[in-house]
Write a structure and sequence with these properties.
The chain has three domains: 40 residues; 84 residues, no CATH class; 319 residues, Rossmann fold, CATH 3.40.50.1820. The chain contains 17 helices and eight strands. It has an eight-stranded mixed β-sheet, sandwiched between helices. Strand 7, helix 15 and strand 8 form a beta-alpha-beta unit.
């Protein structure tokens, strides 16, 4: 009997082992087939994955070794015996490190959609030759931008400890998080932070708290910044001030392009308008806040709907009516009609609630000017902005809030837009110049928006405003934090 049981168990184990091996080999085979298919697919705009990996594992270690050798060479200059050799090696190492940083960045971020002028034909050696900068000027710009980006990320990471402690406290308390707001379109989630009764009268907490929707920003390639949990510190702070805070998850590049981002935001705002009453929020006082790319997303979503609705109303009017004076020059009518025909509301079946106000911090408003500014900085091939909004120029125009406003000034009804806008920008912002905020404010006032404020800080840069989203309540992220929070509270009040 025991021998039979042992034999039976041994047979079962053999069957299990065979199944596991079969599944493993099947998975490997399927992966290999997919890899071969992807490599044999005619796609001249991207580098082969194997070639990309080879270049990366060759250039990246060389760059790291060169960077480590620079301080050693600088230290060797202190010794007279090694001074001549160190003086000769130091500029060479700096030059190699500059090219290594630029090339590593290009291999990681610029190979999937290379410019057409880099193509040598189909099929060609383009799939095996990486798209890399050659001139020292280009490499210097890219290296400068990459080092600045790394420095900014390191300054943000200094707040990680405080964020983790706040996250542990939040998880210990019962809350309303991981709510699916986009069914049946997707399974995107949002977090709700109801107002605390310690700062608001208990009779008013049930239904009268203003709602603040914090739209996450995306700073590629560190896509962690687009996760809703990253904005727990600001959400907690505004919750303690008596606001009902909502932080939705939004799809950004490289997951998808701006159309899906707009759809996600529309679904999130629609959920807020329908359900925020159950979380002590007032659906008639919904304020939307964004930074950088999310600020552009907020402005585009609202302007896009306002322009399309205004154009629909104008189409049904009698153009021959004597009371209808079209001030648009006849030479521009055809151009505007061609542009306006391409406009549409993404997910028009989703109804937006009445937005009481919009808060935009260091936000993009002119896509074309943003792309030109990135070209001046030398990061147009590394940035996700063009990939997210375009990549073609006409697509960028359709997704530019300022271009939509300029092309629709003659017919745009300001009642379709929120009545209040607060623009917060820094004078030292090189990534998004303050001129974009000035242009957006002037256009909003020109079309008839009642209140469009611009709060400018002369010595604030782009990442100073972003730190506001990540600072824990007891920790000041920047010297402008208190002033910005007071401005936001007074704007909402």
């Amino acid at each position: 009997m025991r021998a039979r049981l042992v034999k039976s168990d041994f047979g079962q184990w053999l069957n299990i082992l065979a199944t596991v091996v079969n599944d493993a080999f099947g998975t490997i085979a399927r992966t290999a087939i997919r890899g071969v298919q992807s490599m044999t697919r005619d796609n001249s705009a991207s580098l082969y994955p194997i070639a990309n990996a080879i270049y990366l594992w060759t250039i990246a270690p060389l760059t790291c070794g060169t960077i480590l050798a620079i301080p050693v060479t600088a230290f060797a200059c202190m010794f007279p015996v090694m001074l001549p050799l160190a003086l000769l090696m130091f500029p060479v190492l700096v030059f190699v490190a500059m090219y290594g940083i630029a090339w590593t960045s290009y291999i990681l971020l610029a190979q999937k959609d290379r410019p057409s002028y880099t193509m040598l034909g189909v099929p060609s050696l383009t799939k095996y030759i990486p798209f890399l900068p050659v001139t020292p000027q280009r490499c210097f710009k890219v290296t400068k931008a990459v080092l600045g980006y790394i420095w900014s990320c390191c300054s943000i990471m200094s707040m990680a400890k405080n964020w983790f402690l706040l996250y542990k406290q939040h998880k210990a308390r019962p809350g309303s998080d991981s709510i699916i707001y986009s069914m049946p379109f997707s399974r995107q989630q949002l977090d709700v932070y109801p107002p605390t009764t310690s700062t608001v009268d208990a009779s008013d907490v049930r239904r009268n708290a203003p709602v603040l929707v914090l739209v996450p920003d995306a700073i590629v390639p560190v896509t962690l910044t687009s996760h809703r949990k990253m904005y727990l510190p600001l959400a907690t702070r505004m919750q303690q001030l008596g606001y009902c805070v909502v932080v939705p998850q939004i799809t950004y590049y490289p997951a998808d392009q701006i159309r899906q981002s707009v759809i996600d935001l529309r679904l999130a705002l629609s959920w807020v308008g329908a359900h925020i009453f159950h979380y002590a929020g007032d659906p008639s006082r919904v304020y939307v806040m964004g930074h950088g790319l999310s600020a552009e997303l907020v402005a585009l979503t609202l302007v896009q709907e306002a322009v399309v609705l205004s154009q629909t109303i104008k189409k049904h009017r009698d153009i021959d009516d004597a009371t209808n004076h079209d001030l648009t020059p006849k030479s521009n009518i055809i151009e505007q009609e061609t542009f306006n025909k391409q406009l549409e509301i993404y997910a028009p079946q989703v109804r937006l609630p009445n937005i009481a106000g919009v808060i935009l911090l260091a936000g993009h408003s002119d896509v074309i000017k943003s792309n030109l500014n990135e070209a001046d900085l030398g990061i147009e091939h590394l940035s996700s902005h063009r990939r997210w909004t375009g990549p073609q120029q006409f697509q960028c125009l359709l997704h530019s809030p300022t271009h939509l406003l300029m092309h629709s000034k003659a017919c745009l009804d300001p009642t379709f837009l929120p009545p209040k806008f607060l623009l917060i920008h820094g004078g030292l912002d090189k990534l998004v110049p303050i001129s974009q905020a000035i242009l957006l404010r002037s256009l909003l006032l020109e079309i008839g928006v009642k209140n469009a404020e611009l709060l400018a800080f002369r010595e604030m840069n782009h990442f100073d405003t972003f730190k506001l989203f990540l600072a824990s309540p007891p920790l000041a992220s920047s010297k402008y934090e208190i002033a910005i929070l007071k401005s936001i509270c007074s704007f909402v009040a």
